[in-house]
């Protein structure tokens, strides 16, 4: 296998006429990392991937792979390989010939290229299906063949365009596990485009959250979840209650004022972040308080919905001055002191669980 | 989505249904008693309803396909003299047909036309379809150019053929222009009333029959396959050879069937464009009919039908077109 190389995007831009799809993004993906480009559709993540692959010309900026500037190279000479959304296996070729396709294009002799292709099919445990046509394979098997086909060029970076979206939910989770295992085994850099935050969290060493052609935050998943860099990231990643607030600079200790006038205590360093902020409070860190809770670390509202999810119970409250507040309680704790719809309840949290995001 | 280790296994989800044997059993026991009664009540209508449903198509096939073909086959065994046909059961028509060297020459000539026209329409059809499908990016332009291709079909075949005559003739537009330009001194004789003219007219008439199915095949090719090929380092010509061409085979086969059957059965084009100097099987039959030798023409028609069917069968052996239908 090729040595993993560092992938670097410098002020990379893509314009379609007047529309800016990717707006001057900078990103460094360390060698051998599993990087997920995450964002809603139309956020520029696929355009970014296609520019790295060379299937889309960059309007501006540079793409570096290791020491080489690959911005203007044709796809096959970049040291990247792409795995397409629906795998794009050639329907008229069997698995071996699909995997051997790029060697055939290079003019490698038939026996040699087939032997090499069989080697890769063995790697992905598909050697018994070598003579099958793609239509005779399941989605998961197709993904393995597509992976073998991408790996035959010894790429330093493997680019995956929503590789799991064609699979049903159960298979998706299984193949997700497999992808991660292969990435660890091969040690090459994976850049994976997805709109599923769950997929990104499960797989990535580096999650790059994008919206409107810009990178909102690029960080390890834990960092993203615990310290979302923007209100968008907090909302998109899920599991957070995002509240718009103003910081009251006049008060002695930092205090946030919600639209309805509720005043919430903030951690000490929060005052530096400016006047208009967002507060992110993780749903699983909030609690339903039956007794008295400190008024500056709690909110009151009526229970609007209760969803039983097995391990957790999610309770949604209508809280004045917010878009609503969701508390995720462990099943046992919810049923120890259950609430019902319409009932008034107090949601509380610890001071360190309130995360202030500058607007 | 929960991790599969903790997610509900679909097999488990189904189990309770299988285990619910009490209600399943009771339904199963009631069913046999109820079924015959319902079946008996429905039998009157249900038994022949499907036949009624296929009647229109069957009638159509019988009237326009089976009856004419059977008639031709029957008549091909009849006798004839100069003024009438005589019902009979003779092999004379076939013997005379197959023993005549003219027949073999004519079939050879027709096959030669068919081969040349097939090769030319294939080349042109593939190129035009490729241009339309892969080079024209906007759908509007694609449709506009596609309609442009069909414009010649808004006039009749005969008119399209005849329009070549003033263009290609000895004193036609092409010859006079070339002489005026000093390219040639004498008019080019091969332009009209020649094999060249016949093949040219055929290609002009039938190229679209090749363009349409190939274009259709090409439009169905997933564009990500082209990108995947490029990703694997394929050049433009390699993509055409190793991806586009194999995936267009059904379209090529359908187009080929159109062109070959049309050329094999044609007689007007050969008569007009060769000026009576070349013959085709169709022309042979037309001549026999003008002499009222219907049984001879019918025998020839049966032979031609078999030849064309064999050719089509051969093409279908090579390419599976079911995917395209």
Structure, explained:
- The complex is a heterodimer of chains A (359) and B (325).
- Chain A has 359 residues and is α+β, with helices and mostly antiparallel strands.
- Chain A has 2 domains: 7-226, P-loop containing nucleotide triphosphate hydrolases (Rossmann fold); 239-358, Beta Barrel (OB fold (Dihydrolipoamide Acetyltransferase, E2P)).
- Helix content of chain A is 25%, strand content 34%.
- In chain A, the strands form 4 sheets. Chain A has a 6-stranded mixed sheet with strand order 6-7-8-3-9-10, with helices on both faces. A 5-stranded antiparallel sheet of chain A has the order 13-12-11-14-20.
- In chain A, β12 and β13 form a beta hairpin.
- In chain A, α4 packs across α5.
- In chain A, 43% of the residues are buried.
- The model of chain A has no long low-confidence stretch (mean pLDDT 89).
- Chain B is an all-alpha fold and 325 residues long.
- Chain B has 2 domains: 24-75, no CATH class; 102-324, MetI-like fold (Orthogonal Bundle).
- Chain B contains 15 helices and 2 strands.
- Chain B has helices at residues 10-19, 21-46, 49-75, 92-99, 101-135, 139-150, 157-162, 164-168, 173-180, 195-219, 223-231, 236-265, 268-274, 281-290, 294-318, and strands spanning 79-80, 85-86.
- A two-stranded antiparallel ribbon of chain B has the order 1-2.
- In chain B, β1 (79-80) and β2 (85-86) form a beta hairpin.
- In chain B, α3 (49-75) packs across α15 and α14 runs antiparallel to α15 (294-318).
- The longest helix of chain B is centred in the middle third of the chain and has 35 residues, at 101-135.
- Chain B is globular.
- Mean pLDDT of chain B is 84; it is low at 1-5 and 9-33.
- The A-B interface holds A 53, 55, 74-77, 81-82, 84-86, 88-92, 101-102, 104-106, 149, 153, 169-170, 172-174, 177, 198, 310-311 and B 1-4, 6-7, 10, 222, 224-225, 227-235, 238, 242-243, 246-247.
């Amino acid at each position: 296998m090729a040595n993993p190389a560092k992938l670097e995007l410098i002020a990379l831009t893509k314009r379609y006429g007047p529309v800016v799809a990717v707006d001057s993004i900078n990103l460094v993906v360390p060698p051998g990392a599993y990087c997920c480009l995450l964002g809603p559709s139309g956020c520029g993540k696929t355009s970014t991937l296609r520019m790295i692959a060379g299937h889309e010309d960059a309007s501006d900026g540079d793409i570096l792979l290791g020491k080489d500037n690959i911005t203007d190279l044709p796809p096959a000479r970049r040291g990247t390989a792409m795995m397409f959304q629906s795998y794009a296996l050639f329907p008229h070729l069997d698995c071996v010939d699909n995997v051997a396709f790029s060697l055939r294009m290079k003019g490698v002799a038939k026996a040699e290229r087939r032997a090499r292709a069989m080697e890769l099919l063995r790697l992905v445990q598909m050697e018994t299906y070598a003579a099958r046509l793609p239509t005779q394979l399941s989605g998961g098997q197709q993904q393995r063949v597509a992976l073998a086909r991408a790996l035959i060029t010894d790429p330093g970076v493997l680019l995956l365009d929503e590789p799991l979206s064609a699979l049903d939910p159960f298979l998706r989770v299984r193949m997700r596990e497999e992808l991660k295992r292969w990435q660890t085994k091969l040690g090459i850099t994976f850049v994976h485009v997805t709109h599923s935050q769950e997929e990104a969290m499960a797989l990535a060493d580096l999650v790059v959250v994008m919206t409107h052609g810009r990178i909102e935050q690029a960080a390890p998943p834990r960092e993203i979840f615990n310290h979302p860099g923007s209100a968008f990231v907090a909302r998109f990643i899920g599991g957070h209650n995002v509240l718009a607030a103003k910081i009251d600079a006049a008060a002695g200790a930092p205090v946030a004022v919600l639209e309805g006038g509720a005043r919430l205590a903030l951690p000490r360093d929060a005052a530096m972040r400016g006047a208009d902020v967002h507060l992110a409070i993780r749903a699983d860190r909030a609690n339903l308080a039956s007794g008295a809770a400190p008024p500056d670390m709690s909110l009151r509202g009526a229970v609007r919905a209760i969803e039983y999810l097995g391990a957790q119970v999610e309770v949604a409250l209508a809280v004045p001055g917010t878009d609503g507040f969701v508390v995720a309680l462990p099943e046992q704790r919810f049923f120890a002191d259950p609430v019902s719809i319409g009932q008034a309840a107090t949601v509380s949290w610890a001071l360190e669980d309130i995360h202030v995001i500058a607007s | 989505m929960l991790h599969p280790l903790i997610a509900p296994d679909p097999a488990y989800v189904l189990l309770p249904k299988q285990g619910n044997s009490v209600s399943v059993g009771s339904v199963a026991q009631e069913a046999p008693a109820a079924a015959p009664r319902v079946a008996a009540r429905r039998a009157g209508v249900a038994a022949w309803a499907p036949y009624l449903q296929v009647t229109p198509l069957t009638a159509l096939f019988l009237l326009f396909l089976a009856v004419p073909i059977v008639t031709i086959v029957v008549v091909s065994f009849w006798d004839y003299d100069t003024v009438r046909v005589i019902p009979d059961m003779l092999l004379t028509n076939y013997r005379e047909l197959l023993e005549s060297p003219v027949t073999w020459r004519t079939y050879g000539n027709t096959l030669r036309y068919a081969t040349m026209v097939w090769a030319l329409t294939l080349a042109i059809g593939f190129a035009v379809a490729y241009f339309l499908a892969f080079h024209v990016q906007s759908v509007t332009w694609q449709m506009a150019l596609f309609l442009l291709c069909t414009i010649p079909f808004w006039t009749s075949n005969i008119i399209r053929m005849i329009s070549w005559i003033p263009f290609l003739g000895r004193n036609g537009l092409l010859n006079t222009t070339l002489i005026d330009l000093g390219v040639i001194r004498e008019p080019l004789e091969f332009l009209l009333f020649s094999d060249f003219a016949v093949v040219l007219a055929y290609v002009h008439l039938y190229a679209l029959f090749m363009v349409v199915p190939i274009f259709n095949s090409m439009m169905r090719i997933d564009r990500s396959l082209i990108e995947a090929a490029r990703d694997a380092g394929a050049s433009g010509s390699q993509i055409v050879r190793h991806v586009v061409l194999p995936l267009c085979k059904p379209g090529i086969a359908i187009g080929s069937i159109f062109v070959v059957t049309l050329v094999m059965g044609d007689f007007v084009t050969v008569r007009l464009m060769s000026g009576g100097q070349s013959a085709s099987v169709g022309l042979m039959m037309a001549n026999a009919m003008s002499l009222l030798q219907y049984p001879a023409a019918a025998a020839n028609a049966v032979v031609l039908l078999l030849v064309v069917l064999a050719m089509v069968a051969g093409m279908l052996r090579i390419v599976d077109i079911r995917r395209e239908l």
